[in-house]
Design brief:
It contains 14 helices and 26 strands. It has helices spanning 5-13, 29-45, 61-73, 87-96, 165-175, 194-206, 218-228, 237-250, 273-282, 304-309, 356-362, 401-409, 444-454, 480-494; strands spanning 18-22, 25-28, 53-57, 77-80, 101-104, 119-122, 145-150, 160-164, 184-187, 209-212, 232-235, 263-267, 287-293, 297-302, 316-317, 322-326, 339-344, 363-364, 367-368, 372-376, 382-387, 392-394, 397-399, 414-423, 430-438, 463-466.
Amino acid sequence: MNLTDAIWRNAKAFPQRIALHYQNEDLSYQQLVVRVESAMVNLRARGVRRGDVVALSMRHAMAYVLTLLALARLGACGAVIKDTWPAERKEQFLADHNIKLLIQHAGDTWRSSRDLSVSYLLGTALFSSSASAEPTDSIEAADLQWMLFASSGTTGTPKIIPETHRMRLLRDSLGFSARGDGERVLVLNDLAVYYGINTVIRALRAGYTAIVTLYANLPLVLAILERTRATTVIATPAVMTGFMAAAAQHAPGRLVHCEHIESVKLSGSAVSPGLRQFIEERICPTVEVSYGSTEAGLLATIDRDVYQSNPECHGRIRPWVLAEAVDEHDAALPAGQVGLLRFYSPLTVSGYASDPVTTAHFFRGGWFYPGDRGSVDSSGYLRLTGRADHVLNIDGEKIDPGVIEDVLNAYPGIIESAAIVLKKSGSHTMRLCAVVVATGNIDWPLVQEHCRARLDATCIPQEIILRSQLPKNAGGKIRRDALQEEILALLKNNSK
């Protein structure tokens, strides 16, 4: 069993069908196989064998995907190293995962100063062989890792999560609905993160066309949509929020949607009512939002039917998942009561690579504890109220920021928001503030009235600050620490 086997079957069934599109270049399934097998020859020549871990620092999206497929077919494992990481972090990563080969893009000239026996290879050299490679069988790899993924890093340094070939196949079979052969999937996610690259791999295994791009600005994406006639768009709410703001500013009088788009699928964070309305009216009426994690896979989804029946929920728990909210003693709470969330799923990995202490904290008794707070009612509807480590504390009063943000995001014209606590330098006074991104003219006194009618007195923001965007990480989640620093600096400058 090897996750690439289905792709090779697709190449035999429809060799001329387009597999990958990137920067005006189309690659058929037959061409994909030829390039991957060429890369396999070069990787073998560099000593890569079954079970090895190879680090990638590659910017060309197509070469990156082909390299990962070559490694997977050899039974080896890929792991991303960002060229923007500090040297110490890179070196520790190489040491922790016993990496012997680092494949780099042309602009990455970094070399480790430690004696780690690491060799370096320019990515373009993998595909430079003029001789055609002999067809190669895949390596049996069911229980081998095919890639090491970094968690979102919402709460600090990202944790490294291994995924096996078997787990990838299982997650695809449970979390993916089959569509027609003409599916063309535009992936706007960062391919270095879990949701991005696995969407591409899943599309290729299903025989679809995967469209990848580095661009996340509206005019270029619209051009790609028209050129490729994508049927499905995969993105984070952060990317779509950027499109919404751009459309409001540059194209308020015209529709953005293309008639060939059949669905928009989002994952990474909650979707505000305003953003959902924008997508349904101006891009596509079929919107599906997923809640899950790299550690546990898909956990809940919200499509149009779920949203119409329960618009305040963040998804309905998937049939193969058990979900509970627990108290501080790990005892299950009654349905609908808010607590720390935990999930039991056959799609959960066994733990974090080279980190038994952190594994023991988040994986307990077969359950995975992602660190989110919320509730699950008796019908399986999930409600998120925030991160356990993001709970706001104002003079001993603990407040879930998600409760405030849900109310703000429901106000017409507000795209997204973040509740934070500010304490000015030299002052002991703490203020509950909300930072919002909005379109059009907002009547802020009416927003305050909207909050007063729906929130407890302790949850009403004392100040609402308008910003053009909120700082996000690669997974599209709000970087609250960076936002707090940004707002404090803004207030400091304004007081001068």
